[in-house]
Design goal:
The complex is a heterodimer of chains A (295) and B (317).
Chain A (H helix, E strand, L loop, with lengths): L2 H5 L2 H7 L9 E3 L6 E3 H6 L15 H8 L6 E3 L4 E2 L11 H12 L5 E8 L2 E8 L10 H17 L3 E7 L7 H20 L4 E9 L1 H4 L8 E4 L10 H8 L10 H6 L5 E2 L5 H12 L16
Parallel strand pairs in A: 6-7, 7-8, 8-9, 9-10
Antiparallel strand pairs in A: 1-2, 3-5, 5-6
Chain B lengths: L7 H19 L5 H20 L3 H8 L7 H7 L19 E8 L2 E8 L5 H6 L7 H16 L4 E7 L6 H5 L2 H12 L6 E10 H5 L6 E5 L3 E3 L3 H9 L5 H8 L3 H6 L5 E3 L10 H20 L3 H13 L4 E2 L2
Parallel strand pairs in B: 2-3, 3-4, 4-5, 4-6, 5-7
Antiparallel strand pairs in B: 1-2
Classes of the chains: A alpha/beta (295), B alpha/beta (317).
Chain lengths: 295, 317
């Protein structure tokens, strides 16, 4: 306590104290600063009930919401990362991996599951952005391709929710080649006449946006998600001028024809199911009398 | 000849040789022997310096301002080249060039990034950094090649795809992604050669192939050493460390099994003897095309998909 604080009357001190919220119970909306009850926010799929800001959501949580309850089975969970280059910067890549695995309880940044979407067999993948920025290395590429293989074997559509900073530098050229690997797999899926829906969430940039995330038969953005090839900082350094308002946000991409639509997270199940039922030549979900499994 | 920093001892010797040549032309003294002695010394010195290059020094060679570019190989290796322009949608991108040409008499499609030689041309070619229209032109030419069954030869030499406002507005990501998608199923043989810098997605967007060849002093990586250093080490000055860590040189990548052939360069690098380099490259491309054109399109595609499927190192499953 400084001498100045000591002489302030205690009443004023009380007022100055920051109102801390108990860890975990309450959360602040990152956009409108509204204090939100965590359980309610989770029920609302991490969309702020006050301003509809779409906060980032974990990959596993997203899939469990997106697929019909208790219908899912994780694919390729046994695929785990290696460190072929023994990469080391200020920290060893191996240590970074262990740390990320501990804090996220995931083995790598992409989770893929086979399951049902309103009764329709699908495969869905989602990124865990907290795992090294959702970066794509060999495991992400391999899991993505296994998801495609599963789709081909079972003739199911594929949905992928991206949230990634791009290729994982610590796997160097291996990670770059995952762009070719995932895109090549999608060309096999397309040749087999199976649909692929790509949902781009905040943020989707670099090697992920420049490969499978932009290759959807339908590309969907979440509101205000940052989507682009180069990061805004890199572009700023290159062009040395201020970037236009709303640059590289979903709305900007929709304006420029890069994505088909922007969907509220809470509408994803209905809208994507609607699309896939049509693409798969099935009657509308309601007509087959499926029980809604809304959250 | 311009020399890089680590070549300074060679530069000094070469300067001495030039001086002596100048002296000998107006004096009657016979110093031919001395020149020959110095030349031999220069060769020995170059050999020893080039025997132990660091990945960063190799990166500098890959970016050498006198290094042969795509157009140089087009004039030395190929004949009858006719450049085709434009993506039919927006513009013509001068950072990527392409068109049909003949290689030893047989028609092929050639696509490559092109850097400029002087300031004016460098600007016009955007330092070899393509925009979406460049990748879409490349895609158009690839599909053209497929229609007429011309094997595809791509020459890679770019720091990366251009990061700018216009590039983002016109869908740089989609343009690159679409090329990866299309190339993986193109029913013609594809031979890609990294002739200088293989910079990230901007390079890969014309580099999905059946055979990947790298020149000895070319590099291929997910990000430039400067970019990697500024992100992971928080300082672009650590570029030497980043170049080392990423294993981006031809020999290192060959050891990792990611490159099919590394072509040795003339002593001192490709720019010291461009004709010799071009001859070696021509022999290599022809050899690979011979193997690939002997395959049925189905076998070729299956092999390409298997090859791409195999990229990556992981455990389990």
């Amino acid at each position: 306590m400084t001498w100045f604080e000591k002489i302030i009357p205690s009443r004023i001190k009380t007022e100055r104290r920051t109102r801390s919220v108990p860890e975990g119970l309450w959360m602040k909306c990152t956009a409108c600063d509204a204090v939100l009850y965590r359980a309610e926010l989770e029920r609302n799929l991490h969309v702020c009930p006050k301003c509809s800001h779409h906060m980032r959501i974990g990959g596993r949580e997203r899939l469990e919401y997106f697929l019909d309850e208790e219908s899912w089975e994780e694919l390729a969970a046994e695929i785990e990362p290696e460190d072929p280059l023994r990469f080391r910067d200020s920290k060893r890549y191996r240590d970074r991996l262990v740390q990320a695995q501990k804090s996220t309880e995931e083995k790598d940044a992409l989770i893929v599951m086979a399951g049902k979407l309103k009764g329709l067999e699908v495969v869905a993948g989602a990124f865990e952005f907290r795992f090294l920025g959702g970066s794509m290395g060999s495991v992400v590429g391999e899991r993505f391709v296994r998801a495609v293989d599963y789709c081909l074997a079972h003739r199911t559509p594929l949905i992928c929710f991206s949230a990634s900073g791009g290729a994982r530098m610590q796997e160097a050229l291996y990670s770059l080649l995952q762009m070719a690997k995932t895109s090549a797999a999608l060309s096999r899926l397309a040749a087999a006449g199976l649909p692929y829906i790509s949902v781009l969430t905040d943020p989707t940039t670099g090697g992920v946006s420049a490969s499978f995330a932009m290759l959807g038969d339908v590309n969907i953005g979440e509101p205000k998600a940052l989507i682009g090839f180069a990061g805004p900082r890199v572009i700023q350094q290159t062009v040395r001028e201020t970037l236009p308002e709303g640059f590289q946000r979903s709305e900007f991409l929709l304006d420029h024809g890069a994505i088909d639509m922007i969907l509220d997270r809470r509408d994803m199940r209905d809208r994507i199911a609607g699309l896939l039922y049509m693409f798969m030549g099935k009657p509308a979900p309601e007509m087959v009398g499926l029980k809604e499994t809304e959250v | 000849m311009s020399f890089l920093e680590f070549e300074q001892p060679i530069a000094e010797l070469e300067a001495k040789i030039d001086e002596l040549k100048f002296v000998s032309s107006d004096a009657e003294v016979n110093i031919g022997e001395e020149i020959a002695r110095l030349r031999a010394k220069s060769r020995v010195l170059t050999t020893s310096i080039f025997a132990n290059l660091t990945p960063w020094q190799i990166t500098q060679l890959a970016r050498h301002p006198q290094r042969p570019y795509t157009l140089d190989y087009l004039s030395t290796i190929f004949t009858d080249f006719q450049e085709l322009h434009g993506d039919r949608m927006y513009a013509d991108d001068w950072a990527i060039i392409g068109g049909p040409a003949r290689l030893d008499g047989r028609p092929v499609m050639v696509i490559g990034q092109q850097k400029g030689r002087d300031t004016k041309e460098r600007v016009r070619r955007n330092y070899g950094m393509p925009k979406p229209e460049g990748y879409r032109k490349a895609k158009r030419l690839m599909e053209l090649a497929e229609r007429f069954k011309l094997p595809l030869v791509t020459l890679i030499d770019t720091p990366g795809a251009y990061p700018g406002v216009g590039s983002e507005e016109r869908g740089q990501s989609e343009a690159i992604a679409r090329n990866l998608f299309v190339m993986s199923s193109l029913k013609i043989p594809i031979v890609s050669v990294v002739i200088g810098e293989g910079g990230s997605g901007g390079a890969l967007a014309i580099g999905v192939c059946d055979r990947l060849v790298m020149l000895q002093y070319s590099v291929y990586s997910v990000i430039t050493p400067e970019g990697c250093a500024s992100i992971l080490w928080k300082s672009a000055d650590k570029k030497e460390l980043a170049a080392e860590a990423m294993g981006m040189t031809a020999d290192r990548l060959a050891k990792l099994g990611l490159v099919d052939e590394v072509l040795r360069e003339p002593l001192g690098g490709a720019h010291r003897d461009p004709q010799a380099m071009a001859d070696a490259l021509k022999t290599s491309i022809l050899k690979h095309l011979d193997t690939l054109t002997a395959m049925t399109p189905e076998a070729l595609l299956q092999a390409r998909h298997d090859r791409i499927r195999g990229f990556g190192v992981y455990s389990g499953g």
